[in-house]
Write a structure and sequence with these properties.
47% of the residues are buried. The chain is built from 15 helices and four strands. The protein has 422 residues and is mainly α.
């Protein structure tokens, strides 16, 4: 039987052929993705070095001004770093490393003094109130540890995840955050931690005790963050292990992009970082709880997902890194699906932007989490729903690009809510 083509069907065929012809190669898409990763981690390193300078100034000349400058540098350092989180889940080298720099939540009593309401050691963590800053020697796994000098090696090799307990976070952004702000004891009221600058003062002006050791810890943690970011930046440079692993199998590389997007959107951000905290009405579930910076953390995670899909990232110096994108690849297969994905990413960013702007106007994320606060719940669920909705389209993209099924990270808060309370 001869198939008849109408003028309309012929035109459609030509358009489809042109779209396919214009499709970028997977290699080009992966190259853009890796270039953006290198730029994001390099920006994170640049911002961390600015933080290091501010920390050194605080230690040298403690004051309200130098403490506030260090805090501002920490908040600024989070902007590029949070946009790298979309590289988790799909890239093993990032997953294996990420716990060094961004692990949370943490039992902060491991590091320094805490309020009496914090409690003491528990069956889950006997080191929950170790307070290494106050203890130059302590027992760990039957061995006596010499902590008379707090070094990056002590933090990374001995203290971090001590005794195999994930809550024993001794390194990374959140350890530094705690040392700059202290505990946030405001509950569901607005406000961050309120560590005084005198916690870094000398002599009789020192508050909290052990100010010299606290300065040692802060310096060691910041220096370690720098070296960890230097290492990861190098992995995404030409010839680096992360770039090489990504590009060895181009189809698997495209799957890695979508795995990172879907897992961060769904289980990690919508679930563990947003919906879970709302279900528990618990400000301790905030990602940047000491600094009260969670609204920014959520926003820049979402932005990282969007800029990876679009293949364009704006660096902290205002320049742009861009090229062939996943969006371009989807357009060639299903233009309507690409339009849908872009719209959903934009909707999510609007929802996360509302959380950010509302928090900056004075309605803190702590307050949004309070039970019975309908306005706060609506704001957070707007972000959750946007993230969940865009994940559904990411799943459709996996099918449209004829990729193997991807199992995105899940969360009981989304998949089995009753389990959260058991």
């Amino acid at each position: 039987m001869t198939r008849l083509f109408t003028a309309t069907s012929a035109m459609t065929l030509c358009i489809a052929s042109a779209a396919v012809a214009d499709a970028p190669s997977k290699a080009d898409v992966l190259d853009t993705y890796a270039n953006i990763a290198e730029a994001k981690f390099e920006d994170s390193l640049i911002a961390a070095r600015t933080l290091q300078t501010a920390v050194n100034a605080l230690i040298s000349e403690p004051s309200d001004a130098t403490l506030n400058t260090a805090r501002a540098a920490w908040v600024a350092a989070r902007v590029p770093y949070q946009q790298t989180e979309v590289y988790r889940f799909g890239n093993a080298i990032v997953d294996d490393w990420e716990g060094k720099v961004n692990a949370w939540p943490l039992d902060e009593g491991l590091i320094d003094y805490v309020d009496a309401s914090y409690g003491g050691p528990s069956d889950e963590n006997e080191f929950a109130v170790l307070n290494v800053i106050a203890n130059p020697s302590f027992a760990l796994s039957g061995e006596t540890v010499d902590a008379s000098t707090i070094t990056p090696e002590l933090l990374a090799d001995t203290l971090h995840e001590a005794d195999g307990i994930e809550a024993n976070v001794a390194t990374g952004y959140h350890a530094i955050e705690f040392l700059l702000w202290g505990q946030d004891l405001n509950g569901h009221d607005a406000g961050a931690g309120n560590r005084p600058w005198t916690d870094y003062a000398s002599g009789d002006a020192c508050t909290g005790g052990n100010c010299d050791r606290r300065a040692q810890y802060l310096s060691a943690a910041t220096n370690l963050l720098i070296s960890d970011l230097e290492w990861m930046t190098a992995q995404w440079a030409e010839g680096g292990d992360a770039r090489t692993a990504l590009t060895t199998n181009e189809t698997a590389g495209v799957s890695a992009i979508l795995t990172g997007m879907g897992s961060l959107s769904y289980g990690e951000q919508a679930g563990e970082r947003m919906r879970l905290g709302l279900m528990l009405n618990d400000p301790e579930e905030e990602h940047d709880c000491f600094a009260d910076n969670t609204h920014n953390s959520h926003y820049y995670d979402g932005l990282g997902i969007q800029n990876v899909y679009l293949g364009s990232y704006t660096r902290i110096d205002g320049t742009s890194v861009s090229g062939a994108s996943l969006s371009d690849l989807v357009v060639a297969s299903d233009p309507a699906l690409d339009t849908e994905m872009k719209a959903k990413l934009a909707n999510t960013m609007l929802a996360l932007g509302r959380i950010k702007s509302t928090a900056e106007a004075g309605f803190a994320y702590d307050q949004m989490l309070e039970r019975g606060n309908e306005g706060g719940e609506a704001l957070i669920m707007g972000g959750v729903n946007g993230l969940v909705d865009q994940t559904k389209t990411i799943e459709r993209i996996v099918t449209a690009l004829d990729l193997d099924q991807i199992d995105f990270e899940g969360s009981d808060s989304l998949d089995n809510p009753n389990a959260v309370f058991h």
